[in-house]
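Practice record 12: protein with adenosine-5'-diphosphate.
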Amino acid sequence: MIRFEQVSKIYPGSQRALQKVSFQLEQGKMAFLTGHSGAGKSTLLKLITAMERPSDGKVWVNGDDISRITHRKIPYLRRQMGVIFQDHKLLMDRTVFDNVALPLVIEGYSMGNIKRRVAAALDKVGLLDKANCTPVILSGGEQQRVGIARAVVNKPAILIADEPTGNLDPALSLEIFRLFEEFNRVGVAVLIASHDLSLIAKMHYQRLILQNGQLLDASQAAEVQ
Ligand code: ADP
Ligand code: ADP
């Protein structure tokens, strides 16, 4: 589903953000990406969403080599994935419904179709009764769940989350992780970058650990756990 082959990334005028990173996230699997601030987590995720290009190596998503993807093909790539950010990037002057509907409106879905899909996505994250609220009045955990509903509304095969629980307390963080688990259980591949080591330790999934832009191998990883 996602495959990195000897991927390096050097930003202009700076040192290496990623160095010869290779890994594979298979279809329907869930994995955590950890490492200190500056280790390269956001960069790795940006290579998957084609917000950045690798300096060297190959990135495969859903069978396509996206290392040299053209601008024209980026919308097609992004349609296959849902992306969740720490600050959830919700539009605060729109309703919860409008926020979740946005990806479908951009795709030109019919209103009937949009209503049905948004209701289903909000139902999955337990916020159906908040559809007509503005996100401003919701709690931090609820706002993040709206972000998740928006990410899953067009049923992507892959979910990518960058520090999705960064602003949440441990109980709410666990709730968000459980939600990702539910999507994973129905076959969605999930990759979550997170600092939340105590929560990750409670969940038994593949762990990718970055240190100074390099992925630790199993024996090195055992030492830091
Ligand atoms: P995080 O730890 O969540 O990655 P950062 O503060 O490191 O947050 O980065 C915030 C944003 O700024 C990211 O989009 C990252 O790619 C970008 N960024 C980080 N370091 C630099 C830099 N040296 N120059 C330009 N942009 C940067
Ligand atoms: P993390 O997400 O693990 O905090 P990042 O991927 O944001 O790490 O950053 C990895 C390294 O790349 C850091 O040294 C950061 O300063 C640098 N970096 C990130 N984004 C940029 C950018 N847009 N321009 C220059 N340097 C960057």
